[in-house]
Amino acid sequence: AQAFVARRVARMISLDVEARLGAGAAPDQGWLSTWLLERMREKAELPPKEISTLVEQYLSSDEAEVEIEDGGLIRKIADAVAGAENRNAAGLMRLLEDTLPAQLLKEDPDAVGFLAQSVAGRLEGAARKKWREGVLQKLLERLPDRPSRLVDQLRGDLAILTEPVLYMPAKGDDAGVEFSLLQTGMHYVSVTVDDGIVQSQLSSLGLAAVVAMVLLMLQLRSVWAGLIGMVPMLLTILVNFGVMGAFRIDLEPATVMIASLVVGVGIDYTIHFLARLRLENSRQEDLEQAVVVSNRSAGRAIIINALTVACGQLVFLLSRLQPLRIFGTLLALAMIVSALSAVALMPALVLWRRPRFLGRGD
Fold this sequence. Notes:
Elements: H1 2-21, H2 29-40, H3 48-60, H4 71-83, H5 89-99, H6 102-107, H7 109-140, H8 148-159, H9 186-220, H10 223-246, H11 256-283, H12 287-313, H13 322-353
Helix pairs in contact: 1-2, 1-8, 3-4, 4-5, 5-7, 7-8, 9-10, 9-11, 10-11, 10-13, 11-12, 11-13, 12-13
């Protein structure tokens, strides 16, 4: 694999040199590939003094995962890293655990591991850069001229030598070549979080709806009561997600809670109206009159309550955080739609089905 990379980079260097300096200015590709292969087998290392300086600068910066205010402790850690034989993440983590005060380790145990990985990565990157610059200077000594554009191109060509790339054979044997891939990075984290949000939305919304429907059935002792009572709530949820889709509002931790809150809060309006309607139906001569009286009393209270709660949620509009502003707006909209559904859609459903759970007068 190293020989293949060396030949590839040698060809790129030859093309760049001849494009800038003319034909024949580039070293022989065969010699150059062999020379690059020999350089690749050299170990890229930093002098202890440079290691100590780099580590001390990083630990003193705001980027360090562990905040260390003691300058003496920072220098002690930097000197220990410079003198360590094993500077990979595991070795540095053991060194930090032995050097850092117990209080810092106790405050955030995971941060020590992240700090070790960061320091190891920075040291490795700095060593690779120093090695590339050394190879570049030796290569430039063999060229008749050194224009700045060519130097930049050669620096980019040599960067390929230190890239963590896996090269596979063009043709394998009968057994083939087995390898595995593991996706990492922020994209994988984002996809995992998004999947968790969707699953949480489905499970929480489904559980809340089923529990609300069962409780409504038990309270009014009727299956129809539970089914009819869920219609306004389902309409509110559809409007909520419809608005999110129309305005391209993403399903995120702040908005995923709204649907479940709508079930818990909106079902109160349905129960309030049906309980009042059941009482008025036993007093009035017919169901139509009971609906009118219920809307004048319970309906007015439902609308006032929804407006009050919605205005309270709109306070989130003053927040500087966009997710909180979206949360407050959608929840206020859901409260209004839920209240209107209870006082407008519910009477229509009751007059259409005339369920028996309302008692006498239906």
